[in-house]
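Lab meeting tomorrow. Please check the following:
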Amino acid sequence: QVQLTESGGGSVQAGGSLRLSCAASGYTTNSYRMGWFRQAPGKEREGVAVIDSSGSTSYADSVKGRFTISRDNAKNTLYLQMNSLKPEDTAMYYCAADPSPRPRWYPLNLSGTDFNYWGQGTQVTVSS
């Protein structure tokens, strides 16, 4: 089993920055695909960014150029650097892991359907 614990959320003004962290414990491997997802009140969950074992990434159009996903395999930690934050970024942010092997052509999945390990979430609130 893999345990995922998010941290780093908070309240910021529009245009500000936050860095989210997701610490993985238990059995972990560097082959896991990892991702960040978010859900705002009354809205469906949205894929924000995903990263594979080689460091390849995929981002939602709404965050491209503003957010950066990265991983430190030695520390078993996933990060999401969020810059130029907007009020519409306000949501609960979750990290997740997809432990299943994927062929090289398999796209990084922003839907979250391939991810079966989830953290408890960290709240991000952006005020205008």
